[in-house]
Design brief:
The protein is α+β, with helices and mostly antiparallel strands and 464 residues long. The chain has two domains: 253 residues, 2-methylcitrate dehydratase PrpD (Orthogonal Bundle), CATH 1.10.4100.10; 125 residues, 60s Ribosomal Protein L30, Chain: A, CATH 3.30.1330. It is 46% helix and 6% strand. InterPro entries: MmgE/PrpD_sf, MmgE/PrpD_sf_1, MmgE/PrpD_sf_2, MmgE_PrpD, MmgE_PrpD_C, MmgE_PrpD_N.
Length: 464
C-alpha cells in the first residue's frame, strides 16, 4: 500500500473521484447530525465526557461540547451509524463513517489547519485502503455472515486516512495499519442492537489512535496485510496481491469505478429492495380493487436473499426493526411509505402492524444471491378474494446503479441536518462541502457543524 500513501498527491484526484467524495462527505455529515439525537449517541457522549486532554475536538451538532480527539471521533462515528442511515459500498461495508469523523477530529488538533484538498486526499486514502483490502477476498463481496466489515476494514481506513493527514513516513504508515489491525473485528451477533453503531465509532477512534501511536514510534508487524494470521484471519479466502507501481502510470482510484449506495430510509441496505417491492405490490392491489384495505390481505410472501441477521419476524426495538425484512415490508404496505418516524416505539408496537407481520412468510430462492450487487426482493400479496399481486425490485433508487440525483442528496442532508443545525449551519455545510477542493482552511466546516438551532434561538433572544 506504500503507493497509496506516498505517490498519491492532490493532483491524482480526478473530477469524478472528487465529486463522489463530496457526495459521501455531505451524506455522512447529515446522517451523523441526525444521529446526535439518538439514545445510543447520548449514552456514548455521556461516557466520553468522563475524559479530558490538552487536545480537544468538536462534537457535531453540539455548540459547547469538546472532547479528546479520539473520543470526538468515537461519538461522531457512532452518530453516523446510529440509525443505519449511512452509505454502503461494494464489496459490503460502510466506508465513510469510519474515516470522516477521525479526520475532522484530527484536523482540529494540527498546528496548521489542512486545506479542503488535504482533507479530500486523506479521505480518499482511507476509502481506497478499505476497497483494496476487501478485493483480496471473494467472501467480502457477499452480505456478511460472521463479522461486521466496518469493524475490520473501517479501522484500517481510519488509520490510513489519519496517517496521510499527519504526513507520516511510509514506514510509519505501515505500522499504523499494523497497530490498527489489532483493534479490528466485531461479531455480527451485535447487529440489530445498540452496540452495532459502536463498530463505526470504534473504527474511527482506534484508527486515529493507531496513526498517532505510529507517529511517536510504536511498531507492529509490517507484514500484517500479507499473512493468514494477520488480516487474513477475518476472511476464509484472503489472498492479497501487490499493487501496480503508481509511480509508473496514473493511479486509478477504486471510487472512480465503484460508486456507493445512499440510503433513503434509515435501515439496513437490504431493506430498500423489499420496501420498493412492497410499495409496488401495494399499488397493483390498490389499482385492481380501487382501494387498499389490510383486511383484504390473506398472506404476504417475501422472496429475499439468505441472510440471518436481517430475518427478524417480530422486532421489538428500533434496531431490530432496521434489520427486519418483515417489518419494513409490512410498514410499507400499512403506511404506503417508510420514513425516519417509522422506527419509533409507537409505530413498532401498533396492533395493525403486528397483525400483518403474522401473515408474512420468507422464502430464499436459490437464484437470489446474498450480494448487494446481485440480490433482488419480491413481494407477493395473496388476497382473500383469490388474486395475488406481485412486484419485484432488482435495483432501488439510491443504489450505485441508480444513484440519487444531487438535488435529492442535498435534500436528504438538509432535512437531516436541520433537525440539529440552524439555517446558517445547514447552508454553510452544503457550501463548504460543495467547494471543498477550493477551501483554504477546513476548520470553517467545524464551525458550521456547531451552529445548532438552539444557538440560533439564543442569538435572536440577545438581539431582541
Amino acid at each position: 500500500f506504500e503507493g497509496v500513501f506516498v505517490n498519491q498527491g492532490k493532483n491524482s484526484l480526478t473530477d469524478g473521484v472528487i465529486n463522489r467524495s463530496k457526495r459521501m462527505m455531505l451524506d455522512t455529515l447529515g446522517v451523523g447530525l441526525l444521529g446526535t439525537r439518538t439514545a445510543v449517541f447520548n449514552k456514548a457522549l455521556k461516557y466520553s465526557q468522563l475524559f479530558t486532554s490538552r487536545e480537544r475536538s468538536s462534537v457535531w451538532g453540539q455548540s459547547d461540547i469538546i472532547l479528546p480527539p479520539h473520543y470526538a471521533a468515537f461519538v461522531n462515528g457512532i452518530a453516523v451509524h446510529s440509525m443505519d442511515f449511512d452509505d454502503t459500498w461494494h464489496p459490503a461495508t460502510h466506508p465513510s463513517g469510519a474515516v470522516l469523523p477521525a479526520l475532522l477530529a484530527l484536523a482540529e488538533t494540527l498546528p496548521s489547519q489542512p486545506s479542503g484538498l488535504d482533507l479530500l486526499l486523506a479521505f480518499n486514502v482511507g476509502i481506497e485502503v478499505q476497497g483494496r483490502l476487501m478485493r483480496f477476498s471473494k467472501e467480502a463481496y457477499n452480505i456478511p455472515e460472521r463479522f461486521h466489515p466496518p469493524s475490520v476494514v473501517g479501522v484500517m481506513g481510519s488509520a490510513a486516512a489519519s496517517a496521510k493527514l499527519l504526513g507520516l513516513s511510509p514506514e510509519q504508515c505501515i505500522h499504523a495499519l499494523a497497530i490498527a489491525a489489532s483493534s479490528a473485528g466485531a461479531p455480527l451477533a451485535n447487529a440489530a442492537t445498540q452496540t452495532k453503531p459502536l463498530h463505526i465509532g470504534n473504527a474511527a477512534r482506534r484508527g486515529l489512535e493507531a496513526a498517532r501511536l505510529a507517529q511517536i514510534g510504536l511498531k507492529g508487524n509490517p507484514a500484517i496485510l500479507d499473512l493468514d494470521r494477520g488480516l487474513g484471519v477475518y476472511y476464509k479466502d484472503y489472498s492479497p496481491s501487490a499493487m501496480a507501481d503508481s509511480a509508473v502510470r496514473a493511479y486509478k482510484w477504486i471510487l472512480e469505478d465503484q460508486d456507493v449506495a445512499f440510503k433513503r430510509i434509515p435501515a439496513h441496505l437490504g431493506m430498500h429492495w423489499v420496501v420498493d417491492a412492497a410499495l409496488a405490490a401495494r399499488e397493483k392491489l390498490q389499482n385492481a380493487v380501487g382501494k387498499f384495505d389490510l383486511s383484504q390481505i390473506r398472506h404476504v410472501t417475501l422472496r429475499v436473499p439468505p441472510s440471518k441477521y436481517v430475518n427478524c419476524p417480530l422486532p421489538a426495538t428500533e434496531h431490530q426493526a432496521r434489520h427486519s425484512f418483515q417489518f419494513n415490508a409490512c410498514t410499507a404496505l400499512l403506511d404506503n411509505k417508510v420514513t425516519v418516524a417509522s422506527f419509533g416505539d409507537a409505530q413498532i408496537g401498533r396492533s395493525a402492524l403486528k397483525e400483518l407481520l403474522g401473515k408474512v412468510s420468507l422464502e430464499t430462492p436459490e437464484d437470489n444471491l446474498p450480494s448487494f450487487d446481485k440480490m433482488y426482493c419480491e413481494v407477493e400479496i395473496a388476497t382473500h378474494q383469490g388474486p395475488s399481486y406481485t412486484a419485484r425490485c432488482d435495483t432501488f433508487y439510491g443504489h450505485w446503479r441508480k444513484p440519487l440525483t444531487l438535488k435529492h442528496l442535498v435534500d436528504k442532508f438538509s432535512v437531516n441536518a436541520s433537525s440539529v443545525l440552524c439555517t446558517e449551519g445547514v447552508e454553510g455545510v452544503i457550501d463548504v462541502i460543495g467547494n471543498i477542493e477550493r477551501v483554504a482552511d477546513c476548520s470553517i466546516l467545524g464551525s458550521y457543524l456547531r451552529m445548532t438551532s438552539n444557538q440560533e434561538h439564543l442569538d435572536r433572544m440577545r438581539i431582541l
